[in-house]
Write a sequence for this structure.
């Protein structure tokens, strides 16, 4: 972390200490019971983590995306479910309101979101619309000063917690020249016709809150439109570009958590009379894991610095997510191998990382989508 400022190092140390002393001890039980600890969420709010990249006028910390990534990476070392709760709460919950909301919407929603008193979800993915968000089928029509929303969303993070206040959904609001007009609309939890369905039974991120959503004639005021009508598709793309930096930071933390655990285990595990760490094969495996962490961190740091400087960063964000997501998955596999049979036991963190890390190559843009973005940067896409 040689490129960090003194203030950024202090933030990293603070969140790392919180992760080790508060988050890690509850992670196994939270994963086993599929329970998101609202106490941990509340403490993250007290530390100001949900407000890191927002101005103080709305209750934020006046930081930037680099600061957010530092916090997410530190949490991702020990518990990806908690890290994604923060990432989604900021990138997908509060950021769309801050970036595209009216002043009234910002004043109404941001203070609670930035303090951790409330969470929000971002309803984009549908059964037939994932990477191809243009295939959105959820509709919203104006009727008597209200949007009437019909459709469904899936895989929506932070949509059903006790403190979830609303979800922002993309919906087709018109059709011009055969092209869908997609807008984003704020739908408060508890709106009649809006149902948060039962949580998913997932492979990993078991302590993260994730639900499918159903809209059956759900009515919200016309003023709940977020951003200009028809700008939903363009706006969500910019949100995902930023979110990919945060996911890359999370992935880097996961890769580092696997490395740390594997190094400690290799040093303590005796095999044929000597420590596993003295075996060259184990040393080479751990060295490759270290190289992956280093490369992933450089990639997301670069993308975050570009974003915070107001420079183009979409391609660099895609590279960061690609490199870091693969680093997390590869390190989880190698750490599990170092642990042997113990790596297959859920009580060991590397087993949880093994299950958790696969989604890092899928969520907020699959590996294939990142490759497409990078190819476009090379002028290769048709």
């Amino acid at each position: 972390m040689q490129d960090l400022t003194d203030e950024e190092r202090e933030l990293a140390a603070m969140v790392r200490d919180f992760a080790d002393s508060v988050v890690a001890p509850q992670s196994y039980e939270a994963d086993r019971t599929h329970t998101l600890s609202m106490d941990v969420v509340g403490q993250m709010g007290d530390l100001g983590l949900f407000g890191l990249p927002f101005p103080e006028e709305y209750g934020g910390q006046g930081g930037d995306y680099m600061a957010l990534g530092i916090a997410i990476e530190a949490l991702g070392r020990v518990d990806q479910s908690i890290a994604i709760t923060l990432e989604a709460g900021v990138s997908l919950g509060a950021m769309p309101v801050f970036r595209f909301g009216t002043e009234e919407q910002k004043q109404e929603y941001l203070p609670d979101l930035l303090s951790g008193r409330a969470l929000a979800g971002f309803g984009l993915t549908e059964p037939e619309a994932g990477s191809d968000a243009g295939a959105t089928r959820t509709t919203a029509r104006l009727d008597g000063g209200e949007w009437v929303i019909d459709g469904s969303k899936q895989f929506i993070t932070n949509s059903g917690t006790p403190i979830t206040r609303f979800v922002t959904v993309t919906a087709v609001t018109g059709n011009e020249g055969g092209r869908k007009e997609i807008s984003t609309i704020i739908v408060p939890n508890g709106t009649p016709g809006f149902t948060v369905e039962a949580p998913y039974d997932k492979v990993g991120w078991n302590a993260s809150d994730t639900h499918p959503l159903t809209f059956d004639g759900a009515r919200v005021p016309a003023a709940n439109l977020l951003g200009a009508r028809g700008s939903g598709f363009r706006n969500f793309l910019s949100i995902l570009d930023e979110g990919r930096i945060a996911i890359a930071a999370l992935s880097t933390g996961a890769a580092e958590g696997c490395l740390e655990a594997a190094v400690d285990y290799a040093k303590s595990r005796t095999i044929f009379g000597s420590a596993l760490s003295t075996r060259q094969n184990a040393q080479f495996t751990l060295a490759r894991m270290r190289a992956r962490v280093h490369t992933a961190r450089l990639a997301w740091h670069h993308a975050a610095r570009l974003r915070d400087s107001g420079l183009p960063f979409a391609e660099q964000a895609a590279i960061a997510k690609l490199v870091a997501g693969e680093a997390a998955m590869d390190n989880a596999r190698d750490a599990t191998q170092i642990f042997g049979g113990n790596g297959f036991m859920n009580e060991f963190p590397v087993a949880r990382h093994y299950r958790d890390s696969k989604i890092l190559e899928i969520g907020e843009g699959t590996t294939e989508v990142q490759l497409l973005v990078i190819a476009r940067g090379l002028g290769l896409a048709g």
Summary: Residues 232-268 form the longest helix (37 residues). The beta strands are 119-123, 139-143, 146-157, 164-176, 179-188, 194-196, 210-221, 225-226, 270-271, 274-275. The mean pLDDT is 95. The radius of gyration is 21 Å.
